[in-house]
Automatic annotation (TrEMBL):
<keyword id="KW-0812">Transmembrane</keyword>
<dbReference type="InterPro" id="IPR013783">
    <property type="entry name" value="Ig-like_fold"/>
</dbReference>
<dbReference type="GO" id="GO:0001786">
    <property type="term" value="F:phosphatidylserine binding"/>
</dbReference>
<keyword id="KW-0393">Immunoglobulin domain</keyword>
<dbReference type="GO" id="GO:0060097">
    <property type="term" value="P:cytoskeletal rearrangement involved in phagocytosis, engulfment"/>
</dbReference>
<dbReference type="GO" id="GO:0043277">
    <property type="term" value="P:apoptotic cell clearance"/>
</dbReference>
<dbReference type="InterPro" id="IPR007110">
    <property type="entry name" value="Ig-like_dom"/>
</dbReference>
<dbReference type="InterPro" id="IPR003599">
    <property type="entry name" value="Ig_sub"/>
</dbReference>
<dbReference type="InterPro" id="IPR036179">
    <property type="entry name" value="Ig-like_dom_sf"/>
</dbReference>
<feature type="domain" description="Ig-like">
    <location>
        <begin position="16"/>
        <end position="135"/>
    </location>
</feature>
<comment type="similarity">
    <text>Belongs to the immunoglobulin superfamily. TIM family.</text>
</comment>
<keyword id="KW-0472">Membrane</keyword>
<dbReference type="InterPro" id="IPR013106">
    <property type="entry name" value="Ig_V-set"/>
</dbReference>
<keyword id="KW-1133">Transmembrane helix</keyword>
<dbReference type="Pfam" id="PF07686">
    <property type="entry name" value="V-set"/>
</dbReference>
<dbReference type="GO" id="GO:0016020">
    <property type="term" value="C:membrane"/>
</dbReference>
<keyword id="KW-0325">Glycoprotein</keyword>
Length: 148
């Protein structure tokens, strides 16, 4: 298995009202980590509000919300480390965690508020932030040891 420097994604296409668990996003401490989330926008009346929260998706809204959007712009943001950098009006509501920390590991809920009863699109993402595994010695460090 090989290691991607930024993050590894598993993409799953969702139908409205579906809940998907077991998506894993793996990132490294100090890097920006993007947790993917998209919904289908056919025309501008399909643009809708959504939220990201810590923990599994509850029956409505987001528990421990970290960011909200009305579909066009971010309306509530609990930390500048949580950002939506995609084109919201195109349905790209992926969450970027800036300068990730180990404490950012856990379950994140992406809830897109689709009009109608029980139509919301819910995704629970598992995020794992690891310490960087590769440490590079500074160019001024030399070693005379040899390994056979």
């Amino acid at each position: 298995s090989f290691h991607l420097p930024c993050a590894q994604y598993l993409f799953v296409f969702l139908s409205p009202g579906s809940t998907v668990s077991g998506l894993a996003v793996i990132g490294e401490v100090g890097q920006n980590v993007t947790v993917p989330c998209h919904y289908n926008v056919q025309h501008s009346n399909g643009i809708t509000s959504m939220c990201w929260g810590r923990g599994r998706c509850p029956t409505s809204k987001c528990s421990q919300p970290i960011i909200w959007t009305d579909g066009w712009r971010v309306t509530e943001q609990h930390s500048s480390r949580y950002q939506l950098q995609g084109q919201l009006w195109m349905g790209d509501v992926s969450l970027t965690i800036v300068n990730a920390r180990e404490a950012d590991s856990g379950i994140y809920c992406c809830r897109v508020e689709i009009p109608g009863l029980f139509n919301d699109q819910l995704t629970n993402h598992k995020v794992v932030i690891q310490k960087a595994r590769i440490t590079t010695a500074s160019p001024h460090t030399y070693t005379s040891e040899q390994t056979s």
